[in-house]
TrEMBL record:
The chain crosses the membrane at residues 71-91, 103-121, 141-159, 180-200, 228-246, 279-299, 329-351, 363-383, 403-426, 438-459, 471-492. This is Sucrose transport protein SUC6 isoform X2. One of its GO terms (molecular function) is sucrose:proton symporter activity. Residues 1-29 are annotated as: Disordered.
Amino acid sequence: MSPLQPETPANDAAMVPKTQSTSELGEPSPLRKMISVSSIAAGVQFGWALQLSLMTPYVQLLGIPHKWSSLIWLCGPISGMLVQPTVGYYSDRCTSRFGRRRPFIASGAVLVIVAGLLIGYAADLGQVAGDRLEDKVKVRAIWFFALGFSILDVANNTLQGPCRAFLADLAAGDARKTRTANAFFSFFMAVGNILGYAAGSYTNLHKMFPFTMTRACDIYCANLKSCFFLSIVLLLFVTISSLWYVKDKQWSPEKEDLDVKTPFFGEIIGAFKVMERPMWMLIIVTALNWIAWFPFLLFDTDWMGREVYGGDSSGNDGLKKLYNQGVHAGALGLMINAIVLGFMSLGIEWIGRKMGGAKRLWGVVNFILAVCLAMTVLVTKYADAHRKTAGELAGPTDGIRAGALTLFAILGIPLAVTFSIPFALASIISSNSGAGQGLSLGVLNLAIVIPQLVVSFGAGQFDSWFGGGNLPGFVVGAIAAAISGVVAITVLP
């Protein structure tokens, strides 16, 4: 039974938008074209990697306290709730001569460039607007940063949804090719992560662009600015080459599709009305999965700087130095995580078959995620105990540092599954039901952004209720991951 079934003609106004059938789409495209489109994920993820590894520490250096720093991440879920379903809906219906998906992908790339420049030059623009160098809280710089950050989230959502929908179009309803295409998309996300985290962990990147250091922009800020320059170059290269090489057929709707005028929000409501149990179960598991992931993804480098290294972004020079060392060590951990993610992504199809299916694989890796998040408590306690005997500026021992980096590495295994299996299942479900790929993936994205909205809004304050730091959020994530694993194994079809 299809989880997204069209309703009877009497309810046409609430129908999920019907796209071309498998026969109308023709034969699946060659794998090389899917790989080319998947490579855009490397450019997109380079920017995401910079966000995940450097943004939380950076906003604290601009003057936002730790307990409020998570609020800046509200931009992502809010834009995801609005942008991905909207872009998915209109890309399903786009009749441009350049194709359905390519205009949105190109527009997203342009927005990334604008956002990267705003974020990189936030401190400089803030000074021009009136911030003083001695100000602890640089209000105007924060506003420029928030604007750039918001645009970046809109841009990334504009890019990712149509890219995945484009892959589904190229697969033409072939379930195996859909899974393979999403596995390659996950692989290139890993490539982007590796490049982004490597750039974030390199402390002398600003020397490649000496003009990035200004009176308002110190070494840390200049490194961030240089990272975004590299991100923009990579994204432009992969986007232009992929859109030039892979043609996107112009969509010509059938007459009956033109006659049915359904409002956008009517389509969204209709999508939920006709969803049946398998798709609802997919959404529930995905939501629990991302409740587990977001506390760590938002605060992983902050955890390294604050809990593992014992630094403080608002402390004295010694504590600030320790904090920055921890952030760069966290970026190194994320790079190792991305390497594991890349290798795991290429093996998901084979491992899934050996384990007896997607739901069993997804369930098992969620238990791995739960154990790793719980182990952050143990690593933190060892680091605290070491500082009590060696001094607050001692930093972690090699063993403690290795333990923390090992957790980053192991987490690459469940992350590869999280980046591929839910989207592949959603694409297969929508192909079987005749629903629009773009809108279906946009609906699934709500199961990602709503948990992010909850975590972004409450994580910092929740942590402060339990003494500050990041461990309370990580413990909640471990519990959510364990529940997600149980639900995946027991209720997914």
